[in-house]
Amino acid sequence: MTTELSRAQQELADNRAEIAELQGLIDGLEEKVLNGEAAEEAQRLGEQYGLKRLAELRQEAAERKLAKAEAAEEARRRGEAEEAARVDLEAASDEVIADKFMAALAALDDLAEVCVQRETAVRDHLHAFVELDMPNVIANENPQFIIRVGGTKFEVGERKAQELVSRAINRVYAVRGLSGAPRIGIGASPVERLVAARVGVGEQQAREQADTSAFAELLVSAARQGEKEAGR
To answer: Distance (Å, rounded) from C-alpha 225 to C-alpha 232?
Structure first.
């Protein structure tokens, strides 16, 4: 509320109080006149009528002033509401959304690309190890094709691009409370457990919480933090 509006309201309240007081005096004087008391009372009554009329005029002026102040206050609040909406909507404009969308596309495409690279590498090196009859080959028939390199196992099909892209989208859906998330397998993937470990969540805890929205929030938060650190 502006000072001008507050003053107008107070002025009108004072005028109304003054009129109420004058009306009380007039009522008392009228009663005396009706009871046949001295003409002096009648003269005073006339004076009070005049004062009341002046007070009524001042009240009318105060009401007009208040109406103008209220209109100005409403216009100010409407202007503020529109400005607040403009600021918020500009922060989420189509241009901003388009930039974020392009960044998301690029990030998901990068994820898909490295997954495809890994799948291709596992298959290519599996063939090479098989031809050389190397002990690195753990399994070389359906349903598993597994090799060991540097003490780590690598399996064909364990880092599918479509699965990890779907998991990334699913986790964002869960955090945002959106419907229609892509279906993913039960439990956390090895990659998700690795991300969780980076923020201090153990593998067992990650397995137990994998299907909760809290775990999705943890993953998204870790991803955002990593993005900030990469941008420094």
So the answer is: 11
